[in-house]
Amino acid sequence: MSTQEVWLDLKDAHNQNIKITGYPTERNVALMKRIIMASSNPPDIVLDAFAGSGTTIAISGKLGRQWY
Predict the structure, then answer these.
(1) Residue 24 or 51, more confident
(2) Given this model, what pLDDT does residue 17 score?
(3) Residue span of the structural domain in which 56 resides
(4) In a 3-state reduction of DSSP, which class is residue 45?
């Protein structure tokens, strides 16, 4: 039997128009924070290979992760 995790409490910035900064790579801050916290621990390294709007980098730093 498989289980599926669905996060219904978070909205996507583009699909729900909650905030548009003009960057096509904009991500919901709460969603990125949850993903980074679930998949790493301080001082792990988080890779943002494209660094579009910088959201992943900013959140990683605030959560005590190193980032590249």
Answers:
(1) 51
(2) 54
(3) 27-67
(4) strand
